[in-house]
Amino acid sequence: MMLVKSAGTTETERLLAGFCEHTFLKLWSYPNPYREDGHELSDLLAVFGERVFIFVDREVLLQPVPDKDPQVLWDRWKRNVIDRQIRSVHGAERYIRSGRPIFLDAKRTVPFPLPIDLTKAKFHKIVIAHGAKEACEQASSSNVYGSLAISYCETDGGPTPPFHIEIDRTNPVHIFDSHNLPILLSELDTVSDFSAYLDEKERAVGAFEGLRYCGEEDLLGHYLVNYDEKRKRHIIGMREGAERFTGVMIGEGEWHDFIRTGVYRNTKEVNRVSYFWDELIQRTCQNALKGTLGGNSDLLRGKSAIFEMVKEPRFVRRGLAERMKAAVQGFPDHANQFTRQVTFLPSFEPNVGYVFLQLRVPDSYKSADDEYREKRRTLLEIACGAAKNRFPHLVKVIGIGIDAPKFSGKTNAEDFILMPCEAWPDEMRTHYEELNAPWSFFGTPDLKEFNDRVTQFVPPPKREKEPKRRSKIGRNDPCPCGSGRKYKKCHGR
How far is residue 342's CA from residue 377's CA, in Å, rounded to a whole number? Predict the structure, then answer.
């Protein structure tokens, strides 16, 4: 069945939908869901596993008026764009927690397709506020980007100075604006990376009496450069073991300075290859939306290889894509022969691994065998079982099967398998040992092992220093030190 999604009803909603479709991918983000009474629940709802992301979006232009007090104009804008949307996003959370139905259309004929387990759900509430950027930039020449300043603290919700917003730290909502929305959803463009940032921010909001910053992008810059080796994650505030303190304030310019570093620029360059991983996922998700996906994978309910692939953070996708592309390029050229190559790749998730199977089969064989794709899937399953036998610690094996791209031309189709294997009795191990005997996956003498180390940020390569060249200076020439004397009378003595 084809699943029809809204694309957003306003320009800013369409912008949000585009970013979320990139970050949360096609199957897990839905603009303009509806309540049972036919009213909109939120501007976008994204659900991935136990994570529930509620977005509300509002645009009102804040313009200076010569005869109006700027504070009055600000208070009016804040009530319409911030305060009301905060109440709206809290209301959406309450509605979802009530267990009442959600629909994709105003007529309430298409149910929301993703399950939400309310016993485990973790909610993230996000307000997108448009319209104040230009006014903020004009208010002070020291504003770098025109972003809204945010304080999480104990607050009664009363008036605040222009372009400053106070958020109740006991029930936090994330406030993004026109400038930093694209930054947040472009830099943190996987569910894993975006969730990790929101988790750490919400931890910091709860841990400190006050968390203040000049713009969400500055908090992001602080987060990305502040890595705690002991806890193996990015943090907001001081590293573990530092002197106790009660508040954190991030100054303006953190993001401005960070994106000008060589490490940032080089990391963006080397991450390009990682989007090969995204392309594999997006193609399959699009087929699921169109109702043309074959097999029995339950993509919407999480029981699929694609769901596991989506969990990978950006830097791990880079490592996986690099190794897959190396395997594609290194596929042997044995014309008119049945040729296979299998590659094992570890996941960011512990005890999870990928099996990448490439096949090259003579065209005459494929055209004469109507069951070729089914046989390829069977061979992929055998390879996944062989991987579990070879690496007993695995609890999930994800198989990706494809005709060798090096020789298959522009048309190709992938097969995906999810093999849960935490329980692996002896009869299962023996079963796959017998099936693998003719193929000897992960048991051939030509097996090669690579130890790759993948890091989130990649410093630019060091350039070799060019040797200093010393030019000859005549004794009667001016001295290069700038004294005005002849060389022989100055440093040439």
Answer: 13
